[in-house]
Hints:
The protein has 380 residues and is mainly beta. It has 1 helix and 31 strands.
Amino acid sequence: MTPTPIFPLGNVWDVSAGDLQGESAAIQTLAGDGHLALVSFHDGGLHAFNCVDGALLWSRKQIPGSISIGAGLLVTARRNGAVRNIDLRTGDEIWRTQTSVSDPLVPCIDNDRIVVAGRGLASLEAKTGVIHWTRDEAQFTSPPRVIDARIIVGDSRGIVHALDARTGRTRWTRRTNGALVCPAVGDRDGRLLLGTTGGWFMALRISNGGLIWRWRVGADAIHSAVIHEDRVCFAGNDAVMYALKRRNGHMIWRSPLPSRPIGPPLLYETTLLVACYSEHEGRSVIVGIDVTSGRRLGTFETPAELAVPPLSCGERLALGLRDRSILILAHQSPTPTPAPTPIPPPSPTPTPSSVDLSALAPATASPSPLESPLSVDIEP
C-alpha cells in the first residue's frame, strides 16, 4: 500500500487570538482528540475548535493550568492542586476536586482513572473525581503514564518509579543518570523506552525495571519517542533523529535535523514529523522523515515561531504560534500546470525543384481558327 503523502503542507484554516473576544495572552497548551482542537492561554482562557472547518465551538475563562484529553474526557489541573473535569461538548464543569499536588504536569487519563503528578502524585476516579490515593514524598518531573497496570513517572533525582495503578504502592524504582522529563512509552513486548537529561536513551523491563539496553546520545533526550513496527524513533537535542531496534538498541538509521527539536516526533502512517527551531529568526520548521529509511521527505517553515509543540488532529496538524495565532495544516496536492496549447508546424516552403514553372509563365492567347495559317486561302 502506498503511504498517504504529507508534503507539501498547506494551510487549511487559521484563527488569531485577536479574533477571540477578550483574548490577549500567549498560547499555553494545545490538546485535541482528532475532531476537537483545544487551545489554552496563559490568562486562563480555553477555546474549542472544530478541526475540520475551524468553527469555534465554545470558549471559557478562568480555566488555567495543564490540560489533557482522552477517553472522552477533558481534564485540567491548576497550580494549586485543583483538578477539574470539563464537558467536551459544552465547556461546562462536571466536577472539581482539590488535591495536594501542586505545580502539576499534564494529567494522564487512563480509562476510568486520572493520574496527576507534580509536587506529589494523586489518582482520581474519572467519573466522580474521588481521590483513590496520593503520594507526597517526591517532586515528579515527567508527566505520568499508565503502562501494563503500572504508573511510570520520573522524579528530580533521576529515579524512575513504577507504581501499582490500583493502590499506588511502589513496584520498582530505577536510578538513571539524569532526570526523566518526558513521558515514557511501552511496547507490546514488555519494554519501557525512555530518554533522560543525562544523554542516554534506554530500554527497561516493565515488569521489574531491569536494564535491557541503552544508547548514548550526543545531548539530552527530553522528548518522548514513537514506536513503529520493530523500531523506536526519537529526536535528541544534538539535532539528530534516531531509529533504533527495540529489541537490542542497534541503530537502524540517523537523520540530521536543522536544529534542536521543539517537541516529540509525530507519526503519520510512515512519515515522522518533528518541529525544530529555524535558522530564520522568528520562524520554526517542520521536517518530514521517512520512518523506514530516514530519508527527508520535505519541510514546512511556519509564518511565526511555534509557542508549543505541534498537535496531531487526525490527518491534520495543529500549530500554536507566538503571534497568538492557530493554524491547521494538511497535505495539499500541487496545482497542476496546464499543458501549453500546441502550435501547428509551419507549412513547408517550396524548393525550386518542386515549382510548377508552367504556373509561373505569363498567359498567352490561343489563336482562333480564323487566324490559323492552315486556314488561309491563297489565290492563284
